[in-house]
């Protein structure tokens, strides 16, 4: 029996009180409670969980909790491959050699039925939600650092509604680490922010970081991960550990100042190692007229040799960076340059670009946690990803209903948007009432 290092599991806010996560499902399977395991694995299929599909295929093949059924095993292996399990291909080939034409046709029909249950498809069908269409902040008082958590590192991700006059009318936390630490002071500060006036309201997501000068961040992050066994728990499939690991890796990424290039096919590290995040932040670029973002390859003396990827804003006076020079202590071959429209400073933001395996990125673990049933991860991703936004709307999640309803109203779908806000209010989500008041 695997060791159990679970944090308390928060109840999922869905219309169906019977919820499941990967840890519960695999625990039931290991205890040979196959009826429960089958039910829990099936509950993960709508989340696009390829491992659940693979396990259901194996259970049908082995006759665990069901009569042996090679037709259904093939159907589930086909679904597992479609969702991302490439090792299901060879097992399909094995079954295809054992089934006749009629059985194979039946398996394909069963596969098409199984596909109807999937709500979250892989990221090649990713539909991101943009949050960049918003005015520039002209006044941003910082939140007070709580006295009772001295020397604590953290961040708060906040979603806000900006009025036509530039004031912040409503705000709520999308994600934070650590929990119950910086949220209250951040919300108080954000509601005093002022943006440039515009001709409409806007929804925007802002990031607030809480740093400690001269703090060895990566060392502290590694310490927290090891103390809470987050790495081991995440690798073993605990969605709560995966969500928390994603949050603390996000904290490390934000405060390290590096630009991550996630290598999807790079082998996972055997042990946690955050050395890739330790870089000198003294590299600078003074490129007058540059507006946009660019990933560049540089020589040891700082000369830009190649634009690996560039996205110049329409107002950028510079469209070719090759031959220009970065100054400072060059420690890596690639750097990420950015300067957003409306930023008055002349200096370009320069970040070392480092390649890391997906297991060192926050998004990978949040995605795993969401597919494995963690509701907080699903909500966090839903702020950026329409797949999860649509799924949580179907589940009548009050947070997603409120903010999606707000966006719909701003985009002209007033009746549908108000209906979502009213539904969120009925579910006692407090910011929904505040949002509605400002949208009447």
Automatic annotation (TrEMBL):
UniProt-listed InterPro entries: Sel1-like, TonB/TolA_C, TonB_C, TPR-like_helical_dom_sf
GO cellular component, one term: membrane
Protein name: TonB family protein
Superkingdom of source: Bacteria
Segments passing through the bilayer: none
Keywords: Membrane, Signal, Transmembrane, Transmembrane helix
Subcellular localization, as worded in the UniProt entry: Membrane
One BP term from GO: transmembrane transport
SMART domains assigned to the protein according to its UniProt record, in alphabetical order: SEL1
Signal peptide: 1-20
TonB C-terminal domain boundaries: 128-219
Topology within the bilayer: Single-pass membrane protein
Keyword set includes Cell division: no
């Amino acid at each position: 029996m695997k060791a159990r290092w679970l944090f308390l599991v928060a109840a999922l806010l869905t219309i169906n009180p019977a919820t499941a996560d990967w840890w519960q499902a695999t625990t039931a399977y290991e205890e040979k409670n196959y009826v429960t395991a089958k039910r829990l694995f099936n509950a993960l299929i709508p989340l696009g969980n390829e491992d659940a599909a693979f396990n259901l295929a194996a259970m049908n093949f082995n006759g665990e909790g069901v009569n042996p059924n090679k037709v259904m095993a093939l159907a589930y292996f086909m679904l597992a491959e479609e969702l991302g399990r490439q090792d299901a291909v060879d097992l399909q080939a094995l079954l295809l050699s054992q089934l006749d034409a009629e059985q194979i046709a039946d398996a394909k029909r069963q596969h098409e039925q199984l596909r109807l249950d999937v709500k979250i498809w892989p990221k090649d069908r990713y539909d991101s939600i943009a949050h960049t269409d918003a005015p520039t902040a002209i006044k941003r008082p910082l939140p007070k650092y709580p006295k009772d958590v001295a020397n604590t590192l953290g961040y708060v991700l906040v979603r806000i509604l900006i009025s036509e006059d530039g004031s912040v009318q409503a705000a709520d936390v999308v994600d934070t680490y650590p929990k119950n630490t910086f949220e209250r002071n951040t919300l108080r500060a954000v509601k005093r922010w002022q943006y440039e006036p515009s001709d409409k309201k806007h929804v925007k997501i802002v990031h607030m970081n809480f740093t400690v000068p001269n703090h060895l961040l990566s060392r502290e992050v590694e310490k927290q991960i090891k103390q809470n066994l987050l790495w081991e728990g995440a690798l073993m499939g605990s969605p709560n550990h995966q969500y928390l690991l994603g949050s603390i890796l996000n904290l490390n990424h934000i405060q390290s100042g590096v630009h991550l290039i996630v290598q999807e096919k790079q082998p996972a590290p055997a042990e946690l190692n955050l050395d890739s995040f330790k870089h000198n932040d003294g590299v600078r670029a003074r490129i007058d007229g540059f507006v946009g973002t660019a990933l560049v390859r540089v020589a040891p003396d700082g000369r830009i040799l190649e634009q690996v990827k560039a996205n110049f804003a329409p107002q950028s006076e510079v469209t070719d960076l090759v031959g220009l020079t970065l100054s400072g202590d060059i420690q890596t071959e690639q750097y990420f340059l950015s300067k957003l429209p409306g930023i008055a400073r002349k200096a370009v933001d320069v970040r070392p670009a480092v390649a890391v395996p997906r297991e060192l990125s926050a998004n990978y673990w949040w995605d795993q946690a969401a597919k494995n049933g963690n509701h907080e991860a699903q909500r966090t991703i839903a702020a950026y990803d329409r797949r999860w936004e649509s799924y949580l709307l179907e589940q009548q999640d009050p947070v997603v209903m409120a903010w999606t309803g707000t966006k719909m109203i701003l985009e002209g779908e007033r009746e549908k948007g108000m209906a979502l806000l009213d539904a969120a209010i009925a579910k006692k989500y407090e910011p929904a009432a505040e949002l509605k008041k400002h949208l009447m």
